[in-house]
Amino acid sequence: xxxxxxxxxxxxxxxxxxxxxxxxxxxxxxxxxxxxxxxxxxxxxxxxxxxxxxxxxxxxxxxxxxxxxxxxxxxxxxxxxxxxxxxxxxxxxxxxxxxxxxxxxxxxxxxxxxxxxxxxxxxxxxxxxxxxxxxxxxxxxxxxxxxxxxxxxxxxxxxxxxxxxxxxxxxxxxxxxxxxxxxxxxxxxxxxxxxxxxxxxxxxxxxxxxx
Length: 211
Prior knowledge:
Elements: E1 2-7, E2 19-24, H1 27-39, E3 43-49, E4 52-68, E5 74-90, E6 99-105, H2 114-131, H3 146-149, H4 157-165, H5 169-199
Antiparallel strand pairs: 1-6, 2-5, 3-4, 4-5, 5-6
Helix pairs in contact: 2-5
């Protein structure tokens, strides 16, 4: 299905279901948000990456306006919906200050692998235990999706954007598990290095080996 969306490029990746708070201050985006409020419509956030507007992004709905400033600036709460691909990009939408584009919705294949999901959950627990970080989301619900943990994996923007473009939950799961398997040994070695550095210069109570 194709449609025309107002576009708000940002150098972030927004995943479906994600809640995002935005402070709107540029005239073009104040106009965009006001148009969406007046029309009860959505807008799109394509990822601005490698010095250009990426072809993929996420449709965004406005949940509420948290604050209006005398200057016309706004604090808004939003939430990601589905993913789209831009077929035609307009630097300025007809008669508007902001960008727009013809987009098509990207179908998402719900083909998750329950075994891989459990492995991801365990690897996440290992990661944050190794880092000494307490994360509430480690008590994930049984129906969690890859998008729910994607921002908590230490991925860079390019890696998150690759994940956004993937149309299959099973493939996203494999990508996430592969990343966790790669990063965990590095984190573990870093923690061991920290301990060795701490010991340097201190009296050590060493047990001689038996030989």
